[in-house]
Specification:
Blueprint lengths: L6 E2 L3 H7 L23 E6 L3 H18 L2 E6 L4 H10 L6 E4 L2 H9 L8 H10 L2 H6 L1 E2 L2 E2 L2 E7 L2 E4 L1 H7 L7 H13 L3 E3 L6 H16 L1 H8 L8 H14 L8 H6 L3 H9 L5 E6 L3 H7 L10 E4 L9 E2 L1 E8 L6 H11 L2 H10 L17 H13 L7 H4 L2 H4 L5 H11 L4 H17 L1
Parallel strand pairs: 2-3, 2-4, 9-10
Antiparallel strand pairs: 1-12, 4-13, 5-6, 7-13, 8-10, 8-11
């Protein structure tokens, strides 16, 4: 699924310095066999991916088959991974491997006793080749269950260079500048932003970037684990800041009503499609995949990004996250599933999808030359360089009932706030009520 999720980096400078860099060092690491010892076996994999993401992941699975002889079967779960996987386990049809898009869901699966700890081989590779923070977010109570195979850089504001040039503006360095430039873009004939409010997770990402920069990493960490209440003044302040964007009809393509009826792919289309309606769309690095694959845009020329700017003098945020591979105890072929996970931990596996596009890896041994364009290469390097300062998307760390369920919790309440942003304090109270309930269960 297209999403989310946290790193503190500084500015375009780090990205610009990354252009032209070709390697993170290290060479391929063999894993998962190579002598066709898994011939005749089938590994079932469940995940949120569909469309081009599913097709590109299938290339990775095909490479695993070529290496080990094991066949694979991918099942797309849609957004509600926990519900789908839970029903499959209850029905005696559990997949062997699940690509989990949220830390909260991984923790939920582990606490229910559904997961196998990672093998010593997988653990050794992750320890050697990934920043410790990725191991932290893949662990529950000290046991490592998850490998973050696909990462996301969630603090990238994508724009049409032609639209900004027409308006005579350059990528901004602060949030206030971004809104000011947005009005200039609007005056030139296009709305400033396309917002995919039909997908509630895009709104959580807006909030998280503002909150991380405005309130700082310590409060961000506390709110992410509900050690800080959502009624805190820092939350109300961030909602107030976000509300300035939501209520400004000049800035939103089609206004609030249309934003609520626009899903994520359509928000990208409004900027990079054949009939542009807006100059910018905020979301993660995966915007590039949609702009290129669906609308034929050349990344770096027809579509580019600037880092989400700093808010009220804070550090410019970078929200990161990813999809973690886990092995289910109840899978019919969990042993072969663990071999797949050992393979996914290697730069060899990551290089397959990196070449196909629409992908970032947190594996420090992956050669950056594997990525197909300078923009993706720079984004990937910034993620690697962030090292242990990475923080995950806040909603991904929450229980799924609060941070990851369509029509409920944070997703719904921020959609309600987009519809009517006049009462940030009231919205904060509703968020606290929903969070308190979800964290108790």
């Amino acid at each position: 699924m297209m999403r989310r999720r946290t790193t503190l980096l500084t500015s375009c400078t780090a990205l610009a310095l990354a252009l032209g860099a070709t390697a993170c060092g290290g060479g391929p690491v063999s894993a998962g066999g190579g002598d066709k010892t898994l011939s005749g076996q089938t590994v079932t994999v469940a995940g949120v991916w569909s469309g081009s993401e599913q097709k590109n992941f299938q290339k990775v699975l095909d490479a695993f088959t070529a290496k080990t002889g094991a066949k694979t079967q991918f099942v797309s779960t849609g957004d509600n991974v926990s519900t789908v996987v839970g029903s499959k386990i209850e029905g005696g049809n559990a997949p062997d491997v699940v690509m989990v898009p949220q830390v909260g869901v991984l923790e939920q699966f582990a606490k229910k006793g559904w997961l196998k700890p990672l093998s010593p081989t997988a653990q050794a590779t992750i320890t050697a080749d990934y920043a410790p923070v990725w191991k932290k977010y893949g662990s529950v109570e000290g046991t490592l269950y998850g490998l973050y195979f696909k990462a996301a850089h969630k603090s990238t504001v994508w724009y049409s260079p032609a639209a900004l040039a027409q308006a005579g503006v350059k990528p901004p360095k602060t949030y206030d500048e971004m809104l000011k430039d947005g009005h200039t873009v609007s005056d030139s004939g296009l709305a400033a932003f396309a917002v995919g409010g039909e997908d509630g997770w895009t709104l959580t990402d807006w909030f998280e970037n503002i909150y991380l920069s405005q309130a700082g990493p310590q409060k961000y960490d506390a709110l992410a684990t509900h050690r800080l209440r959502w009624t805190d003044a820092s939350v109300v302040r961030a909602l107030t800041t976000l509300g300035k964007l939501f209520k400004d009809k000049q800035l939103l393509a089609g206004g609030q009503k249309e934003a609520l009826n626009t899903d994520f792919p359509t928000s990208v289309e409004k900027v990079f499609g054949p009939k542009p309606e807006a100059g910018m769309v905020y979301e993660g690095d995966f915007v590039a995949g949609v702009a290129h694959d669906q609308f034929g845009r050349t990344i770096g020329k027809d579509a580019n990004f600037f880092p989400f700017p700093s808010v009220d003098g804070g550090t410019a945020p970078v929200v990161s996250g990813g999809d973690a591979a886990v092995v289910l105890k109840d899978g019919k072929n969990a042993t072969a599933g663990m071999k797949l996970l050992e393979y996914l931990a290697t730069p060899e596996a990551a290089a397959v999808w990196a070449k196909a596009g629409g992908f970032l890896s947190a594996n420090r041994k992956l050669d950056l030359a594997s990525y197909g364009d300078d923009v993706t290469r720079a984004t990937a390097k910034s993620l690697i360089d962030a090292g242990d300062s990475v923080r995950f998307d806040m909603s991904d760390q929450a229980p799924a009932a609060f941070g990851g369920t369509k029509g409920a919790g944070e997703w719904k309440l921020l959609q309600d706030f987009l519809r009517d942003p006049s009462d940030p304090k009231g919205t904060a109270a509703q968020l606290e009520s929903a969070a308190a309930k979800a964290y108790q269960n």
